[in-house]
Amino acid sequence: MPAAHGPEEYTMDVTATLSLGDPLEPARKATAEMLQTRERTYSLPQPFYTDERLFQIDMQEIFQKEWLIAGMTCEIPAKGNYITLQIGKTRS
Hints:
The chain is mostly helical. The protein has helices spanning about 25-35, 45-50, 50-65, and strands at about 85, 90. Helices cover about 30% and strands about 5% of the residues.
């Protein structure tokens, strides 16, 4: 019988989207280093909460890579109705 394991840990690979000319490349590398060296049972280092560059990386990695559900059809009951929402600094 296989040994029981705890929940798998997911780690975001912020360096996977590095490209030439990426202005956030230094911040991505610093973020990867902080994630690899942090104590797992402690909160994240302060820059994760206050650094604008890390906020931009979060917006790209979490919200701008895939389609997001914007609403349900029941929220738009008639032709011509619409909804607006804001994700990060982008209004749709």
